[in-house]
Structures are given as C-alpha cells and as structure tokens.
Amino acid sequence: GSRTSGLSGNGTATEDKNEPLTPDQVDFEAKEWAKTHPEEARGLYTSTFIGAIIGLLGIVFLLTSEINTVLVVRDKDMFASSGAPMPVDVEERAELWDGGLKARWRPWLSLGGVALMVSGGLVMFYPFCSVLKDFGLPQAANTADCATSVVLMAIVGAIGWACLLASLCWVCTRPWASLLLCSISLGANLSTSIASPFLILFWAVSSGFLAYWYLAYIPEAHEGYRPPDWRTPLWRD
What is the pTM of this model? Predict the structure, then answer.
C-alpha cells in the first residue's frame, strides 16, 4: 500500500509521503506504536488470543461434523456394495450426520463451525483497523471502510479454510466433492490475497456454478449412488 499518513519513530504523526511501506517498516512502526500505546497493544493481544480460540473452536466443530459424516457414508457405501442389510446403528448415525441439511446434527455443527471461524477472524482483525489507520493502511478513507474490508475478508477466508478442511476429509470417500471443495478453497485464498472486489465476486459466482454442476451432473451427489468398493485393492496378484 501507499503511505498516506503514519507514525514516526517516537509515535507522532508524519507528513503524507505516498511512499510504499515495506514489511520491515510496518513491523518497526507497529513496535513503536506498541511502546507508546501499551494499553491499546494489550487489548490487541487479548483480542487476537480470544479470536484464535473462537476460530479453533469452529474448526473443531467443523471437523467433528465432517469426519462423523464421512464415517457414516463409508459404512453405508460398504453395505450398499455388499448388498447386506443396513444395521440399525448405521441408520441411526445416518439420521444424525447424513442427508445434508436434513441431518439432525451436521448442519448445526458444520455451519456453526464456519460461523465461529468467521467470528474468530472478526475478533482477531477488526481491532487492528484503528492501528492501521495510524499507519495509513489499508488505503481506506476511514475506519468504516476498513471494517467493511475486514468483514469481507473474514467471511471469504473462513469459507476458504473450511472448504479446504472438508476437502481433506472427503478426499478418499467422495473425490469429486473433495475436488470441488478444494477448488473453492483455492479461489477463496487467491481472492483474499489479491483483495479485489471483482475477483471475490467472480469467485462467488464460479463457486455457485461449480456447486450446481456437481449436484446436477456428478453421479456421486445423487441419492442411491453406489461407489466402487473401497475395500477392493487397486491391483491384484
């Protein structure tokens, strides 16, 4: 970014220079700011710690939900491939985890986990808006613009990381779904790295199209799909 206003070494405002800030300069300014604003610095450390805890809790919720769902789906696949009747305990677990939004627990834990990840990001990064404004970063006219950017980045970033984690859970059970989730994750992380509103919009539209394509045309997304027996080795002697 370009420097529109900033802090000198003693924490006082400097004149507009429109010079690019290097990472070393940002680090130096942040340390100087922390020395001259100890109370605010402690507040930032506290909010960062709390936000990280909230985000980690969201990850735990998400992984708990997706791993349990994967295990249920694999059990159902095994019995469907063998033609054996479905045990009662598998049917009971399927009611809790399988069936998308119709499942009893999965929507709450998975979507709740993503919501906690978003909340954690907001708690971590929103307080930095006041500090970044002192440095002239980001190139926002006021704190409200910074807050809008933080909210948008927190949502897109959380969705990206959630899709990556879910992709890893499903890679051996529903590979097409895993590929879709991985693609959405890569697009989200690219969008947050470049921080372009147009790229974020393109990512959102593309992700919706890919999700529709998967649900409409990929066999593994359909009810009654019978996958290859995952117990069968890829080669035989």
Answer: 0.77
